[in-house]
């Protein structure tokens, strides 16, 4: 059977499977919906309810043990979805206070996965928990939830004697769709509840083995004559700051600023969105979590949070990180065009980045960095076409540096083929050309043109008994993508994993054994890493999970001229949701041999992370976390050998949120990062100790999407005795954002 025949059969499989659909009813002119979460309006009683729900967790392939009903209404402006969840013991409903986009699996919530294209590749998601807290964003089966985008919608919840319910009111202006498409929209509804077990119940027969949850979406029949009118909004923002900067041995400096910025969004039709930004303020109201970086050679990826870059963010997502908008460090203006049709998506973004941006220059054994001494113009374009179960796309990026300092360009095709619900194949090929090169001063300057490529292929297949996946990468040493995120180039690798699933075993809901492998070489054929790691994964009561794997003989090289080290280690982790007060606890660890990157030496050590989500009272959330790496080396003392600590790095954070009301919160973040080294263990000069402390206090009032007030104070204290003078920075700020 040839590939075309297989593709045609898979397309028929997806289009021909009949499932219980949702039936939408149009509101009449004299009918209204009171958004109180109760579904008591007369219009709801005339709607056919969807009641077919299936359990995926803790048991798979069975009907849901509790009844859930979904009803759909619409009028000329809004889509209404009502969900009723029946409960045998409503007193156990976990209705926690939560900030927007902070709903978690330890809570009772409903989630709508709305796919107007019915392409089963991505969906807009709308969450609500039993308290009425909301979360929204974009979901895809290959990358999960991206909750950074925010959409205008309303939802109310209510409790009744036998459970809880929710009413959604979603403006059609918040949904990207093709009005002229004859294909019905698709909807998948998830109900989550956590008690002695975590229960995941879907409106389609989703299984744990599937690689395509959205393939189990059901069509929404009956929706017609949808609006395609123009809509727009403008969001001016005013930021005022006053700060101090004090470096030991230098005079204290004070600074203040007042900046006005503007975000514009214009929708000439339901399928097209045009975004523009002028002098945007991209200050991070929420601090990025501290990450251990003292014993790593490569750059660390940071998630995008800035509003302008979030429209159509899923379109830019490809198997490789060809487009990472965080590379646009400090734009002063930008414009973006996004179009979504029934069978294709397209988006192009162009932004002018000011001088001083940091540019990743990936190498085989480390990530180098360059500074752009001039401004640059970054342009990213992405098109994606859907042919049944196959999606074919292309990427084009361009970074043009001003004053003749050169350019970097990347282009190439990609595809995702959902062969069937349990088989997925993806591939991408990128070609790069660059003449903006790193000079001896650490700046980018026009130089010789270099060309490179990056190729990626992966395949996964699973069922209730077996799972297999394989990934192949081939990155040439001269490949570079200044608008993307690539921390390493100049290598070829193959990764594979085979899983044997034993299903329910005793009190465990899942018991899986697996073996994972990696073989990686550099461009000259030298081995970078060889890994063979058998392990086990289990899942049990209280949404608990645990894993452990053993790597008795890992081979790893961290320096081109260095030794190929032989490493043995053990890794594991555990997580659980014990109850309402201790909502979530998690810990991961690695013990064994560790390479000290800076010393190019093998030692004994490990790493450990621990985190928790605590709710001592309903309105207070505490999220403590700690991460630590350490390395010891053997040394002789008399007739015995001892282990001396040569390196320790620890990062701690306490994130606390007090909910004054549904719209008002106070958030306090305390961070402390510390690195210590034994200078006697290194041939080069190293700091015996460095510390970084951060404290942040922010009061927030959210009036609605795009409208908020922030009042805050942040203080930072960095100190590396003997190498860098102590520096203390503080800032008071106010930020007003209002959507017109």
Give an overview of the whole structure.
Pfam families: CBM9_1, DUF5916. Residues 242-251 have a biased composition (Basic and acidic residues). Residues 35-179 form the Carbohydrate-binding domain. The protein is mainly beta. It has a domain at 20-221: Immunoglobulin-like. The protein is 2% helix and 58% strand. It is built from two helices and 40 strands. The strands form three sheets. The protein has a 24-stranded antiparallel beta barrel. Strands 1, 2, 3, 4, 5, 6, 7, 8, 9, 10, 11, 12, 13 and 14 form a 14-stranded mixed sheet that branches. Strand 39 (707-720) and strand 40 (724-737) form a beta hairpin. The longest helix has 14 residues, at 3-16. It is globular. It starts with a helix and ends with a strand.
Task: Annotate the secondary structure layout.
Elements: H1 3-16, E1 22-26, H2 42-45, E2 54-57, E3 62-63, E4 68-74, E5 78-86, E6 109-115, E7 123-129, E8 134-140, E9 144-146, E10 154-160, E11 163-171, E12 186-194, E13 198-202, E14 218-221, E15 231-247, E16 253-269, E17 272-278, E18 331-340, E19 344-353, E20 358-362, E21 367-371, E22 376-387, E23 390-401, E24 406-420, E25 423-438, E26 444-462, E27 466-475, E28 491-501, E29 510-522, E30 527-540, E31 544-556, E32 565-576, E33 582-596, E34 601-617, E35 620-637, E36 640-659, E37 664-677, E38 689-704, E39 707-720, E40 724-737
Parallel strand pairs: 1-4, 1-14
Antiparallel strand pairs: 2-3, 2-13, 4-5, 5-11, 6-7, 6-12, 7-8, 8-9, 10-11, 12-13, 12-14, 15-16, 15-40, 16-17, 17-18, 18-19, 19-22, 20-21, 22-23, 23-24, 24-25, 25-26, 26-27, 27-28, 28-29, 29-30, 30-31, 31-32, 32-33, 33-34, 34-35, 35-36, 36-37, 37-38, 38-39, 39-40
């Amino acid at each position: 059977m040839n590939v075309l025949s297989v593709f045609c059969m898979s397309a028929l499989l997806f289009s021909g499977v009949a499932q219980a659909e949702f039936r939408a009813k149009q509101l009449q002119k004299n009918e209204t919906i009171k958004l109180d979460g109760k579904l008591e309006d007369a219009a709801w009683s005339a709607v056919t309810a969807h009641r077919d729900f299936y359990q995926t967790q803790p048991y798979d392939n069975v009907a849901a043990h509790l009844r859930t009903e979904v009803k759909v209404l619409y009028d000329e402006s809004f889509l209404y979805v009502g969900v009723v969840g029946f409960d045998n013991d409503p007193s156990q409903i976990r209705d926690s206070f939560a900030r927007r986009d902070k709903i978690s699996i330890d809570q009772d919530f409903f989630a709508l996965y709305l796919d107007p294209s019915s392409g089963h590749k991505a969906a807009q998601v709308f969450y609500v928990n039993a308290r009425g807290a909301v979360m929204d964003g974009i979901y895809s089966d290959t990358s999960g939830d991206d909750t950074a985008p925010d959409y205008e919608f309303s939802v109310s919840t209510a409790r009744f004697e036998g459970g809880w319910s929710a009413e959604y009111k979603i403006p059609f202006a918040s949904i990207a769709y093709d009005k002229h498409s004859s294909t019905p929209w698709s909807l998948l509804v998830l109900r989550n509840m956590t008690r002695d077990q975590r229960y995941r119940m879907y409106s389609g027969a989703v299984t744990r083995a599937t690689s395509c949850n959205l393939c189990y979406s059901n069509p929404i029949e009956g929706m017609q004559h949808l609006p395609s009118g123009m809509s727009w909004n403008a969001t001016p923002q005013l930021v005022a700051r006053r700060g101090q900067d004090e470096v030991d041995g230098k005079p204290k400096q004070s600074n203040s600023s007042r900046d006005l910025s503007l975000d514009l969004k214009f929708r000439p039709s339901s399928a097209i969105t045009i975004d523009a930004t002028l002098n945007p303020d991209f200050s991070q109201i929420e601090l990025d979590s501290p990450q251990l970086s003292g014993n790593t050679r490569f750059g660390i990826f940071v998630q995008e949070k800035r509003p302008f870059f979030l429209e159509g963010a899923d379109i830019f997502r490809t198997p490789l990180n060809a487009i990472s908008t965080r590379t646009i460090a400090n734009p002063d203006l930008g414009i973006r065009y996004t179009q979504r049709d029934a069978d294709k998506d397209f988006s192009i973004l162009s932004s002018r980045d000011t001088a001083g941006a940091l540019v990743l220059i990936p190498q085989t054994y480390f990530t180098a960095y360059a500074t752009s001494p001039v401004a640059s113009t970054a342009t990213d374009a992405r098109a994606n076409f859907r042919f049944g179960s196959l999606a074919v796309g292309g990427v084009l990026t361009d970074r043009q540096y001003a004053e003749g300092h050169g350019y970097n360009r990347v282009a190439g095709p990609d595809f995702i083929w959902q062969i069937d619900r349990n088989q997925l194949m993806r591939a991408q090929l990128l070609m790069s050309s660059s003449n903006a090169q790193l000079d001896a001063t650490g700046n980018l300057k026009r130089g010789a043109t270099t060309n490179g490529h990056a190729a990626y292929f992966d395949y996964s297949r699973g069922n209730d008994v077996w799972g297999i996946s394989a990934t192949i990468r081939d990155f040439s040493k001269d490949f570079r993508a200044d608008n993307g995120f690539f921390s390493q180039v100049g290598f070829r690798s193959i990764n594979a994993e085979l899983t044997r699933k034993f299903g329910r075993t005793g009190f465990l809901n899942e018991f899986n054994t697996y073996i994972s492998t990696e073989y990686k070489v550099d461009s000259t054929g030298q081995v970078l890493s060889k890994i063979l790691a058998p392990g086990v994964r289990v899942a049990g009561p209280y949404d608990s999970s645990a894993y452990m794997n053993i790597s008795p003989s890992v081979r790893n090289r961290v320096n081109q001229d260095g030794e190929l080290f032989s490493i043995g280690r053990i890794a594991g982790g555990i997580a659980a949701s014990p109850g309402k007060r201790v909502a979530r606890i998690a810990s991961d660890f690695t013990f064994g041999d560790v390479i000290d990157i800076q010393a190019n030496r093998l030692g004994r050590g490990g790493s450990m992370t621990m985190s928790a989500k605590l709710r001592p009272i309903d309105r207070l959330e505490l999220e403590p976390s700690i991460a630590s790496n350490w390395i010891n080396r053997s040394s002789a003392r008399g007739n015995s050998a001892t282990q001396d600590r040569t390196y320790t790095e620890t990062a701690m954070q306490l994130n606390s949120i007090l909910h004054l009301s549904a719209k008002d919160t106070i958030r306090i973040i305390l961070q402390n990062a510390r690195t210590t080294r034994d200078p006697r263990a290194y041939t080069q000069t190293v700091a015996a100790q460095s510390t970084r402390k951060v404290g942040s206090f922010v009061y927030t009032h959210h009036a609605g999407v795009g409208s908020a007030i922030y009042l805050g104070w942040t203080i930072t204290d960095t100190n590396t005795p003997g190498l860098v003078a102590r520096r203390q920075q503080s800032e008071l700020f106010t930020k007003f954002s209002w959507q017109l």
